[in-house]
Amino acid sequence: MTAAMSEHPPVDGWTAEDLERFPEDNVRRELLDGVLLVSPSPSRIHQTLAARLVVALEDFCPPDQAVTQNVDVRFSERRSFAPDVLVITAAAADRASRLYEPHELILAAEIVSPTSVGMDRITKPAIYAGAGIPYFWRIETEGGIAVHVHRLDAVSEAYQLIGSFRDVIELDEPWNIEIPISRLTPTQFKKG
């Protein structure tokens, strides 16, 4: 039985190679310094928001980039995350792969869930910035949809907030974008 299939974690921690041995069972598994992080299935609201963001970004995405969602990004042998939505280079998109490297990402977006608050607000942005991913979007859902857009500052190697949006996402980077938040908002938010 491999470590990925046993009941106990390996003594030295999990590796990205171990992640590849798990069955494809729609369970989100990520790695932080060899610690296996298992998240519950995302809510319908979360999935609807992610799907609508992918479609909206595709309308503005240049042909040398592609939008996808929930694909593994390997930061090291002991760190692997699957951003909710990501924009990748066309070269990366042309590969038939379930795995990308950080340098292939233009943008990573995380939708904050009750079980991912610390990861999505603190840990993942720090790791994404340290890996050089140029843009990070954090989407909050409590009290309505809010999109917080950050750009990597090359000097500090940290993200700087360039805008927070509750009505329309209007940006000129990484390309011209104009997305009404209502286009992303799941139906149950519109009723409330």
List keywords for this structure.
single chain, 192 residues, alpha+beta, three-stranded mixed beta sheet, globular
Tally of distinct domains: 1
How many strands? 13
Radius of gyration over alpha carbons? 17 Å
Biggest sheet: strand arrangement = 3-6-8-9-10-11
Residue runs with pLDDT of under 50 for 5 or more positions: none
- CATH level-1 class: Alpha Beta
Short structural summary:
The protein has about 190 residues and is α+β, with helices and mostly antiparallel strands. The chain has a single domain, classed as tt1808, chain A, CATH 3.90.1570.10. The protein has helices at about 15-20, 45-60, 90-95, 115-130, 180-185, 185-190; strands at about 30, 35-40, 65-70, 70-75, 80, 85-90, 100, 105-110, 135-140, 145-155, 160-165, 170, 175-180.
Descriptive overview:
The protein is α+β, with helices and mostly antiparallel strands and 192 residues long. The chain has one domain: tt1808, chain A. 26% of the residues lie in helices and 34% in strands. The chain has 6 helices and 13 strands. The strands form 4 sheets. It has a 6-stranded mixed sheet. A 3-stranded mixed sheet has the order 5-4-7, with no helix packed on it. The mean pLDDT is 88.
List the helices and strands and how they pair.
Elements: H1 16-21, E1 28-32, E2 35-39, H2 44-58, E3 65-68, E4 72-76, E5 79-81, E6 85-89, H3 90-94, E7 99-100, E8 105-111, H4 117-130, E9 135-140, E10 146-153, E11 158-165, E12 168-171, E13 177-180, H5 181-184, H6 187-191
Parallel strand pairs: 4-7, 8-9
Antiparallel strand pairs: 1-2, 3-6, 4-5, 6-8, 9-10, 10-11, 12-13
